[in-house]
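Researcher: Next entry in the queue.
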Amino acid sequence: MKKTIDVQAAVAVAAGEAIAAKSQGTFGVGAVLLDQYGNVLKSLQNNVVRDGLIFDPTAHGERQLIDWYFAERARGRELPQPHEITLVTSLDPCAMCAGAILAAGFNAVVAANDPSAGINHDQRGIFESLPAALREAAVASFCYPAVLGSSSYARDSMGCAPRSFFIGKTIAEPTQALCSLVFEATSDKVQAFLATDLPQAELKDPATLAANHPVLRKLKSLYPHALAWRGAPHAPDAGLAPFLREAMEQDRRQGGDGDCAALLDGFGNLLLCAPGRRAQSPICTAFMECTRQYAQLRYKLMLGASAEMQDAVRRYLAHPKEGTFVFARGPGADAHSFMDLGAYGSTMEGPLPANNPYQFQYVQARVDAEQLQAICASMPPLYRDTIRIRPYQVADQALIAALA
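Model: Structure for this entry, 404 residues:
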């Protein structure tokens, strides 16, 4: 088992993963998980893009490491408690990963700054992008070590102190520069790639597919109720309630609080309704499962497929931004909700289509609309200014009453 004895060595491991991510054609970000003695438990790179296809919009290194940790514990491996774990990342965590780190209870050491999506985008170390109830926990668990030198990459330390097992507690300027430049070299290119999906006018209704079409068979193998309900586009009504209730009950059985997330396409068809799996991993919320399952469904159908088949997937199983995500329970001010808001942003990646401002809807409110709007308005620039995340409660009162 490899052991890191200083912050610099740990960041170098994360930077190596970031370089591997760049070579793969995805965002140049990497992360490493350390135990309370500095032993490397696991390191991972970003995997949003794999094999030239969108693999999973939530497959950031940090999120993957957290799920890996809880999966290993579920298999019986003896691992330290979350508060003894340190996650070292080459880039300031996005909203999804910051929420996941806080929800899991890990410590974090951060190298490069991300002025667009990073939770410490303003480099003040007070985390005003987080809901107020989470800021104290972030200050106590997120560490931004000093970078000694005189270049633009130099900085003073901020946040909590590095864990005691680190002998050296600063980052070398060249390593900091590497972390920044690898991400900068990939960010615009990958975001442009993620924005190549077809617009609504070029899509086809999956309800018109023959029953034996591979796209339809694969969709129904993932979710047997796919296409069993259809409503007006972007206007979920009480007809969706039975599918939501079934998934909510499954979410409770699997360690959740009775949430679920449904995806409707731009024609109003129900494609997927997913519960969470929080008994397996506390960050496996319903929305994380829903967006991940749908992305990987598309990936598996397209991997190694003919150009004709890939075109069919793009037309019949469109990017979620053309449809509607419906949460049984809306976001709140907790870490899981902030993670979900960030994961939604990672799924959309760019601005919503002008004709679909109500892409993100929920049935039951956790907090009032003004508080939720304030949480979204305080998020890092990518989320509040570019994607402009705006959750709305469904308009259909019968659907709200059906889940009350």
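Model: The first strand starts at residue 30 and ends at 34.
Researcher: Noted, moving on.
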